[in-house]
């Protein structure tokens, strides 16, 4: 009987593996096709000034409008795109669309985009980004690149050179998900980041957890000391905002201010706040 059970378990395991493999290969095919068919779309989440609530910019967050899987979040497709070698193509397509969308926004607003560690290893990365900027006429000094702390496990010298060359072009670089990636303080000092984004796990836990209070305050002090302003992500509700306000006033992002939405909804949001510039087709009308 034990033997039979073992066999059953073996078959169960084999089936689970088979369906896992099938899912993987469907996803891989889907991602490739999705890129070709333009199914990947930029969503935007507002970043606001905590004190005034004023919108300062948006972070672009990728979504896959898949005819098979529905609306898919990035954690499910970015790793696959990285593995099958299409992340650069995917990302460049999204950035091009985002730069186009952002041309209609008020010139005070910034656009942040996430970059994969795979892209950072490409020696032509900065060049490619500049080409996209030139093609769109979106000003470099309104673009911010976000790289996650885990990227620093790669070559610190290489990342440092890249940040410097992007900064020389006017592009800002921020350190995303700070506090989760075990980067050392001496590394941080060597890298000329423009901004630190505190990982949302610490921020969302603020109302419940004393340790998070300490961690967020410490990161805020560190940022102040290094001359790197802070963005707090994961401001989910009034309680989190109130706790955060005890510590300081930061650029903030989270469901409390707005979830990521598509380009059209972003325009609606901006129109309501008078932060939309007239589209080229509208200038004639506006002049009348
Ligand atoms: P991230 O850059 O740290 O982005 C913030 C994530 O937190 C987003 O998840 C956002 O929807 C979510 N979030 C924002 N506010 C709140 C909140 O108040 N509460 C909670 N619980 N979550 C909140 P999302 O959109 O699922 O993206 C996940 C990650 O995927 C991003 O984390 C980023 O690392 C990556 N990603 C997204 N778009 C791209 C892309 O175009 N390229 C690359 N390489 N990575 C991307
Ligand atoms: Mg998500
Ligand atoms: Mg980010
Ligand atoms: Mg983050």
Automatic annotation (TrEMBL):
Keywords: Membrane, Transmembrane, Transmembrane helix. Residues 24-274 form the EAL domain. This is EAL domain-containing protein. It comes from Novosphingobium ovatum. The chain holds residues 264 to 551 of 575 of the full protein.
